[in-house]
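User: Run a structure prediction on this.
Assistant: Running it now.
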Amino acid sequence: MEWNDGHRSLYSILNETLRVADREQLRPWFKYLKLILTALVKIPSTPQETVWRGIRKDLSSEFPRGTPVIWWGFSSCTTTLHVLENNLYLGYESSRTLFSIDAINAKNVRSHSFFRNEDEVLLLPGTYMEVRSQFNPAPGLHIIHLKQMKPDSMLLEPPFEGMLKT
């Protein structure tokens, strides 16, 4: 879903639309979302484990401790930290945020990813979490600990009955 030839990828366009408050903008995506969510149900969820996501900017002010957070986009994460050494994901320079996420139902997409050595897992749209803590161990590096939780109500309706099980 991503490419590097200067064009905006399907991944970035879809995620941008998923994050917009106006849900009417999602209407053209409904059939595609049903298709991809139907495929993702066939992929096993990871057991409860820590997954990692690196962002190349300081997001610490947007994640105060104790705050509930909903990620509406598909969020690519990894189960191994060394992947984040790549400047594309986190690297060692400039302002960066490293998310440590206690995930309960990430989808293990490693065998379906172009980069199999990245140990990729996917958090689905509507992932509900709480900010547990923050740490700033070095200038420009912010670590935010998130814990995924089941929301009180359904945030993303499954494409068909009984589909999304954790």
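The two ends are 24 Å apart (CA to CA).
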